[in-house]
Amino acid sequence: GESVGLHLPTLSVQEGDNSIINCAYSNSASDYFIWYKQESGKGPQFIIDIRSNMDKRQGQRVTVLLNKTVKHLSLQIAATQPGDSAVYFCAENPIYNQGGKLIFGQGTELSVKP
Amino acid sequence: GAGVSQTPSNKVTEKGKYVELRCDPISGHTALYWYRQSLGQGPEFLIYFQGTGAADDSGLPNDRFFAVRPEGSVSTLKIQRTERGDSAVYLCASSSGLAGLQETQYFGPGTRLLVL
What we know:
The complex is a heterodimer of chains A (114) and B (116).
Chain A: E1 4-5, E2 10-14, E3 19-25, E4 30-38, E5 45-51, E6 56-58, E7 62-67, E8 72-77, E9 86-94, E10 103-104, E11 108-113
Parallel strand pairs in A: 2-11
Antiparallel strand pairs in A: 1-3, 3-8, 4-5, 4-9, 6-7, 7-8, 9-10, 9-11
Chain B: E1 5-7, E2 10-13, E3 19-24, E4 31-37, E5 44-50, E6 53-56, E7 65-68, E8 75-79, E9 88-95, E10 106-107, E11 111-115
Parallel strand pairs in B: 2-11
Antiparallel strand pairs in B: 1-3, 3-8, 4-5, 4-9, 5-6, 7-8, 9-10, 9-11
C-alpha cells in the first residue's frame, strides 16, 4: 500500500549546526509534498511545500529537496536553533486523491542541544 | 488574522458517552479537514468538507463517527458510544479552497480526547 515514512525517528543536533530530516515515499503518483513542524501540545505548523515539477525549494532557513527517482524528500534546516526542537512530519497528497487529504509519515523528533 | 480554533482543548469522557468536537476554520476558507492523531504517530485523515458538503469521508473509522458543517464554516465532529480506542488528538485544518485540491492546510491546536 501507499506510505510515507521517515528514516530516523530521532535526530539530535548542536545549536548552530545544520539539520537534515529525511522522508521516503512509496507512491509515484504523489505530486505534492509538505513539511510540517509540530511542537508539544500544538497542532502541525506548515513549514514549506514542494510540487513534483520542482527539485528544490527554499524558504527562510529551510530547504526542501525532492528526488523523484528514488522517491525521497528531505528537509534541511540551516543554523538550527533551540526553537527548532519539535517533531517534523512529511506529508504527501497524491494527485488521485478525491480531495486534499494528506498522508503523513510517522515523524522525526528533532532535539537541539544548546 | 485568526487561525483555526478548536474547542474544547481537552475532553475527558466515559466509555459509551457521546462527544462533540468543534472547529472554527480560518475566515473565508471553504475547505475543512478533520484528522486524528494517536500518540507518536502522524495525523490520519478522517473527513474533508468543501463548503457544506462532505466531499470525502473515507477516513471515518466506523458509523459511530459523523461530522457536519451546516453553514459552510464551523464544523462539528460527533462521536457516539465512545470507546477507549477513540482516545487521541483530533485535529482540524482548513484551506482556502481556491487553488484546487492541493493547497496549504492550516491546522488548529487540536482537541485531546480521553475516553476512560
